[in-house]
Specification:
single chain, 356 residues, alpha+beta, 19% strand, TY-Chap_M, YbjN domain-containing protein
Length: 356
């Protein structure tokens, strides 16, 4: 079925605002900056005894039983103590190599056991007055050493000494530990339920989209994180999905960078064409060195259920296709084996042992 182009819009105008106009690396970098700023703000205001647990979601990252985490605790007199997982707490195949351990020390972490009470974890102490510097250090640890590709792959819990939860506000796109899968089925919700008493047709398209995505993500519209491009990011297994609202023509684009750093070849274009022909909606294409998947949702006569279905389809599609296409054409998945701390080599020269 051929989509009808609304009057006044040309094919060229419809295609001008492709997702590929966004700099993916800049988008991810900005997401980490926002996470570090949010973390610094929370750390600066936490009372003594409060703790933040940050964990790379193993169900999203494919790390199985390996849990990469950082715990931050506020001690009396504004002292902050942080502990980060060490090799003794990780399965053998996911332990950090010497380069990763050196990176941890270079960032400012003391090796396991050096800081009193750290036992098998890397440790450091700082002050609440230096929350900005500490938050940047922890962000780099999660991103550069533990391999989190985006803050949306992190889950967090803020609690007091009795493990009672503390409402400290959102940490950018990181998800509260109690949050549910954003792709959960919401077919029984109508537009009126999603938008309250407002008449759907009188609500601007961007507001309606944010309401739908916030509902699917089990958060509020005010807490929903929108990046500098106006895109909403959703973690989808080993992939990332973005939702963008366009004004002319009114359109909601649900898209995902399936592979980056991939070599455009004739075989790749043929494969993408074959897969697109088999998709009931949406398309796959390659621009520069990135393979994208895109599902459009018409903004005119917008229906919340259409966006929900597009997000559900894209989250499943992206998480499946990145593995399949990576195996055939190489490149980098948003989160893949090459992005995780490399397992140690078999020869003894590269093993760090249980100490680190």
């Amino acid at each position: 079925m051929t989509a009808e182009i609304p009057a006044g819009d040309t094919p060229e105008s419809v295609l001008l605002d492709e997702p590929t106009t966004a700099d993916l690396r800049a988008k991810v970098t900005e997401a980490w900056r926002e996470f570090a700023a949010a973390l610094a703000g929370v750390l600066a205001d936490l009372p003594s005894g409060a703790q933040i647990d940050l964990t790379l979601d193993p169900t999203a990252s494919g790390t199985g039983s390996a849990v990469y985490s950082v715990s931050i605790r506020v001690l009396p007199e504004g002292v902050i103590e942080a502990l980060a997982v060490g090799n003794a707490e990780l399965p053998p195949e996911f332990r950090m190599d010497r380069a990763a351990v050196a990176d941890m020390v270079a960032l400012g972490w003391s090796p396991p056991g050096v800081l009193a009470g750290s036992r098998d974890s890397f440790g450091l102490r700082s002050e609440q007055s230096k929350a900005t510097t500490l938050a940047a250090l922890i962000s780099r640890t999660l991103r550069d050493v533990y391999g989190a590709p985006h803050p949306a792959f992190l889950v967090y819990l803020v609690h007091d000494e009795e493990d009672e939860p503390i409402d400290a506000g959102p940490l950018a796109t990181a998800r509260p530990e109690s949050g549910l899968d954003p792709a959960a089925a919401l077919d029984d919700l109508t537009d009126e339920q999603l938008l309250g008493e407002a008449v759907a047709d009188e609500v601007p398209l961007d507001e309606r989209v944010r309401t739908v995505v916030a509902t699917m993500s089990k958060t509020t519209v005010d807490q929903l994180q929108v990046d500098a491009d106006g895109d909403i990011g959703i973690r989808a297994g080993s992939a990332m999905v973005f939702v963008r609202v366009r004004d002319n023509p009114p359109l909601v684009d649900v898209f995902s960078p399936i592979l980056t750093d991939v070599e455009p070849t004739e075989q790749l274009y043929v494969k993408l064409s074959e897969l697109t022909n088999r998709m009931p909606i949406g398309r796959l294409y390659c621009a520069q060195d990135t393979v994208w998947a895109s599902i459009p949702v018409f903004g005119r006569n917008f229906q919340a259920i259409h966006l929900m279905l597009a997000v559900q389809v894209m989250t499943g599609l992206a998480d499946e296709l990145d593995d399949r296409l990576h195996g055939e054409f190489g490149g980098k998945r948003f989160f893949g084996e090459g992005d995780k701390p490399a397992p140690p080599k078999n020869d003894g020269d590269h093993r760090t042992g249980m100490y680190l």
